[in-house]
Amino acid sequence: MGGLLLVRRREILLLMDHGLVDLFSADHREHADVPTVGTPEYVALRQRDQARRHQATVLLARLTHPDGDDLYHAAWLFNHGDTPEDVRRAHELASRAAALGNSKALWLSAASYDRWCMYRGLPQRYGTQIVPDGTRFRVWDTDPTVTDEERGLYHVPPLKEQEHRAAQQTQVEPQPPMDNAPPWLQAAIARWKASGAGA
Questions:
Q1: pTM for this predicted structure
Q2: What value does the mean pLDDT of the chain take?
């Protein structure tokens, strides 16, 4: 009887793992082509993102010993969160995944940390976050003491490459409507304009 219960528990855990993989796959599929900010399609995407984060929370709570893949898949869902708490959780999950040997989680650990800083209006550390300012795309303010060597430890490209990527994005992607920009971005745009570094 005990052996049967153990087999059943393994089956349940496997199903839950597939649940996280499915949530991760759906998230990546939808975020490959994000609708314009402020449209009904964008609002619906953000609602589905929130539902996926809720499902991931339930699944993680049932996993006694989540492995690096479990944590990595869940981290991506929280990295697409709306609040500093969401992305802080993404950073914690990605950092744990990296510590368990998931090398793909290194970049996500850095990117989610940067996003956590950005959502709070602080300079990012690694330079992974690129935002619109109403005129162009730009790398969010970045801690100048962080070196490209340190970025490389997290599989983050050199800062010059990130700036080049922002310039390329400006050439091919229209600016979203800034009247729907979140408060942290609106405050940054006002700060950039006041300092002469703005749009």
A1: 0.86
A2: 90
